[in-house]
Amino acid sequence: MKESASRMLLYPLEVLTKAMSNGRNSRMQYLSIIVVAVPIGSLIVGFLMEAFGRIRTLQLGAIPCIIGWILIATAQNIPMILVGRLLTGLAIATSTSPSIVYITEVATPDLRGSLMSFGPTLASLGMLLSYLKGAYLPWRLVAWLATIYAVVPLFLVQFFVPESPVWLVSKGRIDDAKKSLARIYKSEEKGFGKMSPAEQAFTTIMKENEIKLSEQRRSKRGSLSTKLRAFLKPTGWKPMIILIIFFLFQQFSGIYITLFYAVTWFQEVKSGVNEYTASILVGLTRFLCSMVNTWLLRRYKRRPLCIISALGMAVCMSVSGYFTLQIKNGSESGNWVPVLGLLLYVCTSMIGMLTIPWTMTAELFGSEIRGVAQSVSYAMANVLMFAAVQSYRDLSTLLGEYFYNNTIAAGADAKARRRRAKRRAEQKAQAQASVPLNPTPKNAEPV
């Protein structure tokens, strides 16, 4: 909810900066500052999760989010808006990372991918709401509504979501871990003569924790040193390299550029379609396709989804770029094609390239480094996002409308097979190094 709310200002802020006549570069800085704040928060939140737990860190993230939106709602000058956006950017990291790690630790493998895909789904819903509210409501009112969106989850999490049993066991709070598992699996019935799902999960968590403790005793070093040594193992650095490459193709294929610059792009392309209506269609398309992606992740493997997504993005952006060029050259026919091409581009990106990398940021790592590793990979993803957003204008001028994005999207398909091979090798090594976190049901489907 907080990540979705943090995007609420993108639409009205573009209108505000345009009215201020500060030029393209100034608007680009306003749009990018939140991307700068997220990596900083991501690096901090990894240590907060280890010290205070996943749920408590999630609640702490509401504080900068609430303060940031109040500053924006009451802003009298640009610095107040920038500080507010900086705080909401920090809140994104302190909400997203704990959520992903929490789902990885409590969900069974057959549901993990689908559950983590709800993050992009909720972000898509927030984007849709931002376009709708930005079109019909004053931007200050939008900011006050976003404050409410940050407060409500704070209380819902407190009363309805138990702490991660994996973290509780790592801190020696065994009884609390049992209570947490009992709440998580309370709807599961115990089979005749068998352990309940909660008991199975507890046994698995205890075994994994014992392996981690024995390794720490053998190393005879501190916790920080142990984590650094874990990063140097193949089960640490290989997943990190895979994720960085994956996010590199994701960000420079133009996925988030189209979302950040939706209104501006529709204004500049002069397709004859109202830019506000078209922007709402972009948000609606992303939201609907994100719900479809939740089903696809349960039914199909990730490799074919990424390949289909990359190919579809390349084709759609090629068509959109060609007709955009024709319109700029004076052609009056087919002025609706760039809008349709962009909508299909968003649709195909939601199949795999936008959602799948985010679902992998925690599950590829072992529990000993999961919190910190997820935060580092999430920070790197946002650094790449910042680079993509900042370089968009220069690349657009130098190479032509969307040429660069289309080229990189096509290249992502060529790299998909190699990423899959590396991921299989990493999973095999991880399986040998540690016990699986959750008991896999017999009839579980591959994620």
TrEMBL record:
Record organism: Cotesia congregata (Parasitoid wasp)
Assigned keywords, A-Z: Glycoprotein, Membrane, Transmembrane, Transmembrane helix
Transmembrane segments: 30-49, 55-75, 82-103, 115-132, 141-161, 240-264, 302-325, 337-360
The Major facilitator superfamily (MFS) profile domain, residue ranges: 1-447
Identification of the protein by name: Similar to Tret1: Facilitated trehalose transporter Tret1 (Culex quinquefasciatus)
SUPFAM superfamilies: MFS general substrate transporter (SSF103473)
Region of interest: Disordered: 415-447
Molecular function terms, GO-annotated: transmembrane transporter activity
One Pfam short name: Sugar_tr
Protein's UniProt keywords contain Transmembrane helix: yes
Keyword Transmembrane in annotation: yes
Membrane topology, from the record: Multi-pass membrane protein
Lineage: Eukaryota, Metazoa, Ecdysozoa, Arthropoda, Hexapoda
Localization in the cell: Membrane
Biased composition (Basic residues): 416-425
PROSITE patterns listed in its UniProt record: MFS
